[in-house]
């Protein structure tokens, strides 16, 4: 009979060491695994039961550590961490690769006409709005007005950038025009994420000591967190929107694609998907989820507040978000 599972495994934290890039990458490969979208409702509910029972101190007979961690990642892929509600299917992190490969592939394929540019930038920002709403924080929820403002602003920014660059690149080589969608997506991320998290920029995000004890709220920490998320989001788009255009530009000059032009879109989507399978988890792992900064870099009033609680504390920690 196998030994019983200890009740001391901390399944509220990732399985791998998050202080290393390798550990963070392993974690996000599990979180963004598209295969989780194919799991049945019964499998999701079973994973929820295993996780909630274990957290309550009840260990199912015969449960192994690998099975526990598998249940934890299935649970995390489908249920909101703060509210416990089942998340919208297309808004889950495991939907990032299939949804983005389709949308990005179409943006890179249908970039020549103005209606196509406007339509696919709108689709992309609509998807981003669903993802941001689905993964909203329970501690700092997004209001409908904030969601609407961010959605309209990001869509407008993306469309204006795309159309402006499209007109500027009209007389330049075709390969240059292929990078217009990437510039539009980068501009939209720079608008969308800060607007979506404007409450944090105004009021701050919780900062804690190493043991998770809450010390206060800091806008400086919020600025660093949002900057890291913007860099990660743009980084995710770089391989998917930079490599396929170069390959497709070469292929379109060959006889094969001239003979079978209808393969253009499927090839583009496939190339984007291949890039995103690796770019999404690796760019999520660029910065630790539990980021840190020196106390001396916080606002003076927050520094004073922390010094009263712990005069010798040098570093604080915060959740950067996704």
Detailed description of the structure:
With 322 residues, this protein is mostly helical. The chain has helices at 21-31, 41-55, 65-78, 96-109, 114-134, 144-168, 174-177, 180-196, 198-203, 219-251, 255-259, 264-284, 300-309; strands at residues 205-208, 214-218, 290-294, 315-319. The strands form 2 sheets. The protein has a two-stranded antiparallel sheet. Strands 3-4 form a two-stranded antiparallel ribbon. Helix 2 packs across helix 3, helix 8 packs antiparallel against helix 10 (219-251) and helix 10 (219-251) packs antiparallel against helix 12 (264-284).
Q: What's the Cα radius of gyration?
A: 22 Å
> Which strands sit side by side, in order, in the main sheet?
1-2
SS-based class? mainly alpha
The outline comes out as globular
Strand content: 5-15%
* Count of alpha and pi helical runs: 13
Total beta strand runs? 4
The biggest sheet, with number of strands, parallel, antiparallel or mixed sense and barrel status, is: 2 strands, antiparallel
Mean pLDDT: 83
Task: Provide key terms for this protein.
two-stranded antiparallel ribbon; 6% strand; mainly alpha; globular; 322 residues; two-stranded antiparallel sheet
Topology diagram in text:
Elements: H1 21-31, H2 41-55, H3 65-78, H4 96-109, H5 114-134, H6 144-168, H7 174-177, H8 180-196, H9 198-203, E1 205-208, E2 214-218, H10 219-251, H11 255-259, H12 264-284, E3 290-294, H13 300-309, E4 315-319
Antiparallel strand pairs: 1-2, 3-4
